[in-house]
Each structure stands twice: as structure tokens, then as C-alpha cells.
Amino acid sequence: MTNESPGRKLRADARRNREQIIEAARNLIAERGAEVPMEEVARRAGVGAATLYRRFPDREALVRGVALDGFGRVVAIARDAEDEERDAWRALSRFIRRAAAELRLATWLSIWFTSTWEQLHADPEERRLRQTLLKILDRLVRRAQADGDLRHDVDAGDLTLMMALLLRPLPGLRVELTQRNVDRYLALMLDGLRAGPDIQPLPDGELGLADLGGA
């Protein structure tokens, strides 16, 4: 016999349906691009079309849900790296490598769904997640610099923009970047961030947390 109330079970079912829909949409968008039919998302999620449209009445709402879920995953990756790695450089490296797949999907979403993405920047939940992420990265950057592992003339804004530029698809590129390609260039980026006796000073032009909405 269970003590679970009907209302609580309904909430649990609704939450599970929502998670299944978002996971299905994430996978289908990654596999097939922007034009995935809503009905196909429902089939992949194992729910009826009515359930899908009750949770996400249109494609814009679904993309928003996928994007916020992805942002939440990136924040969790950053938080876990900070909590579990005693060495700040290892924490930064771990975050950059593990967050790449999530950020790559976010980059594609920003290209395919431009208007939705612009509206998302005004979303309070997106702003909260962005501020949380940038504050974690700022702490890791300062710690790694204090340890002498990260060059002193970069900040969290530099890391964020470097990853965004690296993961953005190049116009006219006839081959699709694989995860091995991404890993290679992330390693090259990390090598360039290392402190050392012979590094050349960077030109001015850095963007801080306030510029990226993190303050």
C-alpha cells in the first residue's frame, strides 16, 4: 500500500512526461536539425500529442524548454567541477571539456531559432542560470590564476566567448566537425590559456562579467 496522494502522483507523472519530451526533443534536434515535427517528438518521448502540446503549446515553447534544460546541465557541470576538483586548473579543464557538447547544441539552437533565442535572453530563469555559471567560472579563473596555472590576463568572459566561437559552425565548411575535432581544438585552447614564462601579452578588448550579464 502506498501513501502517495493522487495529486502528488499526478505531479510526478507530469514532471516525468516533461523530462521525456525535452530529452526526446534534444536528441531529435541534434540528430536531424531544426525541422523536426512536433508529432515526432511526442512519439520519441512516448507520450501523446495532446500531452506534448499541453506542456509545450508550440515549437517556440519547446525550444525554450530545451535551451533552459541545457543551460541547467552546463551549470551542473560547472558546479560539480568546482566541488569535486581541488585543483582549479583541473576544474576549469574538466568544465570546458564536459560542457562542450551542451554548449554546441545551444549554439545550433541560437542559429536555427534566432527570434526565440533573443527572447530567451530576457527570461528570468535564463538570466539566473547565466549569472550562476559566470560566477562559478569567475571563482575558478581567480583560483587558477592565484595558483599560477592560468595566465593572468584572461577572465571568465574570455573563456565563455572563446568556447562560443570555437563551437560555432563555420559558413561554407563542407565537413561536419566530429567530437574528436572539437576535443582537439579544446585542447589547443586550453594550452593557450596556460601560464608560462614566455607568453605574449594579450591585446586589450576583454569582456567582463557585467558585459555578459553575469553581474
Describe this structure as you would to a colleague.
This protein has 9 helices and no strands. The chain starts with 5 loop residues before the first helix and ends in a 22-residue tail after the last helix. By secondary structure, it is mainly alpha-helical. The relative contact order is 0.10. It holds the Pfam family TetR_N.
Q: Which helices and strands appear, and what pairs or packs with what?
A:
Layout: H1 6-32, H2 38-45, H3 49-55, H4 59-84, H5 88-112, H6 114-120, H7 124-146, H8 156-167, H9 179-193
Helix pairs in contact: 1-2, 1-4, 4-5, 4-7, 5-6, 5-7, 5-9, 8-9
Oligomer: single chain
Predict the CATH topology of the largest domain. Answer: Tetracycline Repressor, domain 2
Instruction: Write down the secondary-structure element order.
Output: HHHHHHHHH
Radius of gyration: 20 Å
Give the second-level CATH assignment, the architecture of the largest domain: Orthogonal Bundle
Helix tally equals 9
Indicate the mean pLDDT.
85
**Unreliable residue runs:** none
Quickly name the level 1 CATH class of the largest domain. Mainly Alpha
Distance separating the two termini: 50 Å
Strand tally, please?
0
Helix vs. strand class: mainly alpha
Number of domains: 2
- Helix percent reads 55-70%
Instruction: Give the biggest beta sheet.
Output: none
Coarse morphology: elongated
Brief overview, please?
This protein has helices at 6-32, 38-45, 49-55, 59-84, 88-112, 114-120, 124-146, 156-167, 179-193. It has 215 residues and is mainly α.
